[in-house]
Amino acid sequence: MQTINFLKPNRDNIKNYSIIGSFLVLVSLIDVISNAFLKINLTSFLPGSLTTLFPLIIGLIGLNMMRIDYSGNKKLDLLNKNINTNNFNALLTLLILFSIIKALPQSLSWMIFDATISGDSKDACTGTGACWTYIKVWFRRFMYGMYPNEFHWRINTAFILVIALGFVGYFMKENLKKYLALYYVIIYPVIAYLVIYYLISGGSFGLQWVETGAWGGLSLTFIVSFFCLIFCFPLGMIFALGRRSNLPAIKYISICYIEFWRGVPLITVLFMSSVMFPMFLPEDFFMDKLVRVIIAITLFEAAYCAEVIRGGLQSLPRGQYDAAKSLGMGYWKMHIFVILPQALKLVIPGIANTFLALVKDTPLIFVVGLAELAGMLALAKTNPKWLGFAMEGYIFASIVFWIICYAMSKYSYNLEAKYKTER
Amino acid sequence: MSDPIIKIQNMNKWFGDFQVLKNINLEVEANKKIVVCGPSGSGKSTLIRCINRLEEHQEGDIIVDGNELSEKTKDIEKIRAEVGMVFQQFNLFPHLSILDNCTLAPIWVKKMPKKEAQELALDQLKKVQIDDQANKFPGQLSGGQQQRCAIARALCMQPKIMLFDEPTSALDPEMIKEVLDAMVSLAKGGMTMIVVTHEMGFAKEVADEVIFMDEGMIIEKADTKEFFANPKSDRTKLFLSQIL
To answer: Hey, what CATH topology would domain A132-147+210-420 get?
Structure first.
């Protein structure tokens, strides 16, 4: 008869150990689940503190028994390698599992089972769960801000147009490809600006003028992020090259610029753009608050982009510069054809990082009175009719931001894979 | 006797306080092949990097094809286009295919039509026997193939002078031969070449003159046969006894 040795599981008695071990883990999980979901305490016969510790002890013994090196069973090896390497990791695994299980019933019932979504006023929300009615009623405000309801189609049309224009690059003919950079850096932003100006602002072609103070919600997040992203990248590139220039004037101007903007907090920049900046302008010269904010964020983020791109430039071996020079290429040809294509590839993760931070910084424009998505939430939660639903609003906003940012980071991974070259 | 295509007079160069090149005098006539050898750190690479001004010299004159190289030289790119260079580490552009590596400079520097540039590139690639790899990327080729591609890339600019900076030092012994073969056939075609190398076999086969450098100075400069048969200075004798 085989003797079961608790201290030394090995390959010979793998079956006994893995079956008993997984059975013990299963028991511990069942105990926790029944406790959390069904409110039944299976171990109530045990004295006090032992009841709470019971699943932990049983689970640990189970995992300990399952820990067999090179068992030959693929699933078991995978499990042991990743979450069951030693007793401490096994303990952490169990604790994490248990806390997820314990947290699930409450959050599920709050978010889904006890939640309300019907009705169109606060009175509908009588349950103990979340009040999604709030999001439903305010949805248009969260999307479009104070923009008049009957004109929302103008925002939608403008966005569809801008997105469609963004895809032009994919369908460009081969012989026009060399103008791609020119299109995206200069022509596209201008067209996008005109589209947004004439469609969303209106004022001509029989469209009623809507001032930028009324813009808001997610659409404003998009507008601000879009223009800042599209402008800060080329600007950052210029300053990155400038900082590495041999000409002292250009070099020190770039250094001063970068260090200045990296040294000040965005929130003060935004304040200055809306409060101080107009004082320096001639009296008859008017610049819209939104434009000022976009310029401020662009200048701010360009400094960060510049440093990220400079990192890429510095990581290229000197031989690449030598080779390009020895072929008779001047500064610009060398950078456009040899250096930048390689450096920009290397900095895709860093640029994506900066861009994600930028998108998540846009809520700061609330301090100058522009209410994008998070700003609208802050306004809505102080509405006397809808007091007490801040939680739902913030959850909604975080989900929306998460979707946007996750999509961006996925896209950056794709770009990385697409432009990967072997060295 | 024709005018020398490269003329270096009393040239001195410092890296900070350290003098790398001391009073260099050198004349190279067109179609001549010069091999530069010497221990590492002797300034061989720096010397040929000065010839297309990848390094700047502080004193003396360097005249390449009638143009003096100095801070005032405006069209340094034009001079560089006339002087091809092959590096120890190949320095191919990893983001471009072999063919694009070769056509990039002719198209954008020489303004050659794309088709013509591609024909020229394929022709040059054929000469170094890698025309079948034209659409691959540098990372997919062996070291020897990459170096031959680098030679073809430099030749696509149709230079008057070719500089080689230890072209075989980063290669496996098996691959050295294929690169040297390409260089020998180029030499036989009448190109002006300055080659920094430790391959004495190559020097014996193609060089008209051999220069021996040590500690930033040209110690000895002699016809190839003379150089190997009876070297004059003791330093050269010592070097040759170690390397041969």
So the answer is: MetI-like fold (1.10.3720)
